Amino acid sequence: MADETSHHQHSYIANNTKGDYLKRLKRIEGQARGLQRMVEEEKYCIDILTQVSAMTKALEAVALGLLDEHIAHCVVNAVHEGGDEAQIKLKEASDAIARLVRS
User: Fold this and answer.
1) Strand stretches in 1-103, DSSP E
2) Among 32, 30, 24, which Cα is nearest to 63's?
3) Three-state DSSP class for 53?
4) Which helix (H) or strand (E) holds 98?
5) Which helix (H) or strand (E) holds 12?
C-alpha cells in the first residue's frame, strides 16, 4: 500500500537495527502462523486472545522503534536544514503518532 510519502528516500534505519527489526518481524510472522493454527485447531478462545495480545505488543514495539529512528534521523535532519522539508517530516511524524494512538 503506497501513500504520498512512498517516494521519499528511506534510509534512516541503522544497519545495526535493521537486522533486529527483521528478526522481530520474522518472530511476529511465526506468531501469526501460530494463531492461524490455534484457530484451525479450535483452541481455547482466551489462549488465542492472549497470543493476539502478545503479537500486538510485538508489532507496537517495532512501530515505536521505527518511529524513534524516524524522529532521531529524518525529522532532526530536516529541522536542522529547515524549509518545507522540515514541515513535511514533522507532519509525517505527527500523523504516524496519531495512527499508532488510534490503533
Assistant:
1) none
2) 24
3) helix
4) helix 84-102
5) none
Q: Rounded CA gap, 25 and 101, in Å?
A: 21
Statement: the pTM of the whole predicted model exceeds 0.85: no
What is the domain range of residue 87?
16-102
Count of the separate structural domains present in the chain? 1
Computed from CA positions of residues 3, 7, 13, 15, in that sequence, does the dihedral angle turn out positive or negative? positive
Q: Quote the pLDDT of residue 5.
A: 46
Q: Is the pLDDT assigned to residue 14 strictly greater than 80?
A: no
Q: What is the CATH number of the domain that holds 65?
A: 1.20.58.1000
Residue 11 inside a domain? The answer is no
Q: How far is it, in rounded angstroms, from Cα 61 to Cα 26?
A: 14
Q: Please give the grid coordinates belonging to residue 5.
A: 510519502
